[in-house]
Write a structure and sequence with these properties.
With 224 residues, this protein is mainly α. Helix content is 50%, strand content 9%. It is built from eight helices and three strands. The longest helix is centred in the middle third of the chain and has 22 residues. The N and C termini lie far apart (46 Å).
Length: 224
């Protein structure tokens, strides 16, 4: 690993998570145990931002497509298909619930922090990743890429969280290596209008796999 890239940012839905902790009379450090869930998120972020095999501005899905997609265009098509499937599932499941579907999209882009919408996106992400993990079991190239990524992640320090002004912030690092390969930069202009929502999902859904978000979803009640 050439170096580590440090990231300082707000935890996804940090204000909401702060409120949930207070409502449930819990301390932040109770949810900062450094387990496999954290390693998964750091691997996702490392692929998305630094080790991306296809794109300059990745999504995190790309690591699952190594060996399956021969080039960037094929990877883009696969990612759009994956995330359109997620949108189609939501449209089918909440066919007449237009208000909730609007809340889902606003939560996706962090314009709102709807607990039920967060749960839906997290469930969709988990289901899709389970399918993709099963797929890479049959591909040596994908397995080797995954092993290399997790080897780098194993060298990273644990994530750190801080409570600041009724918000939760985070400090963490992702793995980095020198890469001189030219990669595709995906822009809205190169996408068809009916592909843009799928790309929006691809760009944002990884936040619903954040370890603190998932732990709170699994372990506490979300409303007073």
């Amino acid at each position: 690993m050439d170096e580590m890239i440090k990231v300082e940012s707000e935890v996804p839905f940090g204000h909401l998570l702060y409120a949930v902790l207070k409502v449930n009379d819990l301390r932040l450090d109770e949810f900062t145990k450094h387990d496999q869930m954290e390693a998964h998120y750091l691997a996702w972020e490392t692929v998305r931002k630094q080790l991306n095999p296809f794109f300059r501005n990745g999504t995190g899905f790309e690591g699952y497509l190594v060996g399956h997609c021969p080039d960037s265009q094929a990877a883009l098509d696969a990612i759009l298909h994956i995330n359109q499937d997620i949108l189609d599932t939501i449209a089918h499941q909440y066919h007449f619930e237009y208000g909730f579907r609007s809340r889902l999209m606003k939560t996706l882009t962090c314009e709102a922090g709807d607990p039920l919408a967060i749960q839906v996106w997290s469930t969709c992400l988990g289901a899709e990743l389970a399918t993709l993990r099963a797929q890479i079991l049959r591909d040596n190239a994908a397995q080797n890429f995954r092993e290399h990524t997790y080897k780098l992640v194993g060298l990273l320090p644990p994530m750190a969280y801080h409570e600041i002004e009724e918000d939760i912030t985070q400090d963490y690092a992702i793995g980095s290596e020198k890469d001189n390969n030219l990669k595709l930069s995906v822009t809205w202009q190169m996408l068809k209008p009916d592909q843009q929502d799928a790309w929006l999902v691809a760009q944002n859904i990884g936040e619903f796999g954040h370890p603190l978000v998932r732990k709170l979803l699994n372990q506490v009640r979300w409303s007073p």
